[in-house]
Amino acid sequence: MYLYGASGHAKVIIDILQSTGLSVSGLFDDNPDLKELCGIKVLGKFKLGQDLQEPLIISIGNNRIRARIAQQLPVKYGQAISKTAILSPSATVGEGTVVMQGAILQAEAQVGRHVIINTGATVDHDCLIGDFAHVSPGAVLCGNVSVGEGTWIGAGAVVIPGVKIGKWCQIGAGAVVIRDIPDNAVAVGNPSKIIKYC
Ligand SMILES: CC(=O)SCCNC(=O)CCNC(=O)[C@H](O)C(C)(C)COP(=O)(O)OP(=O)(O)OC[C@H]1O[C@@H](n2cnc3c(N)ncnc32)[C@H](O)[C@@H]1OP(=O)(O)O
Question: Among the options 9, 114, 125, 134, which is catalytic?
Fold first, then answer.
């Protein structure tokens, strides 16, 4: 596996891949000063058209940057799923997606491409998680929640059953979301209120 982005997020992905017996052959990063991360060689900037022998994961936490890179790079994408995550046999996970330690995906949860399901997050039955979303550590999505493309759910947020959150939203850490949220909204607090649009 190759990674794109020598970030803190990449460190966690390296741990997940190595603990599942997969090796990381190298990291691409635009910063010419970076030479290695967690003992993995930094290979420099990814060149368009470069032929990769192994799949790639974009190891960048920012959803918009991850989306932009994925749209530019027609390569084969891998997944990193921690062996301590619990996935229902009926849950689905798209390419490029990372499911971190202690995360839970319940029955018929559908997780899109290049998503981050972070440490200890729970995604309950029938949830739909759009491409490029991020469910931060400890967030709880109850049953039948839908999260739009590129939306960021903050750490420890709770979304009650059936709520629909639009595209490219930001839900604050610790928020309790009890009503649908429109595209591009930033919502915080308990019960969550929209404070602005991004
Ligand atoms: C492994 C990892 O680390 S994964 C990363 C996990 N990271 C997170 O969960 C962080 C989630 N991010 C947040 O909660 C952020 O505060 C955001 C995205 C909601 C808002 O960020 P910004 O747009 O920079 O908002 P800003 O800091 O200017 O705050 C705007 C207002 O909202 C309030 N606010 C911001 N975040 C929250 C929150 N989580 N809960 C309650 N109020 C909040 C601020 O106090 C401020 O109020 P004021 O105008 O009355 O002073």
Answer: 125
How far apart CA 136 and CA 118 sit, in angstroms, is 5
Torsion of CA 113, 128, 181, 9, to 10 degrees: -40
Q: What is the CATH number of the domain that holds 147?
A: 2.160.10.10
Q: Which alpha helices (DSSP H) does 42-146 contain, by range?
A: 63-72
Mutate to test the pocket of ligand 1, among 119, 188, 194, 198 (most ligand atoms within 8 A of CB): 188
Residue whose token pair is 């849950």? 91
pLDDT one-digit tens code per residue, 57-114:
999 999 999 999 999 998 999 999 999 999 999 999 999 999 999 999 999 999 999 9
pLDDT at residue number 108 = 98
* Number of domain units in the chain: 2
Tell me what pLDDT residue 179 has: 98
Fill in the amino acid letter for 133: A
How many angstroms does the Cα of residue 172 sit away from the middle of ligand 1? 5
Same domain, 180 and 99: yes
Expressed as residue numbers, the domain containing 165 is: 80-188
Catalytic (active site) residue 125: yes
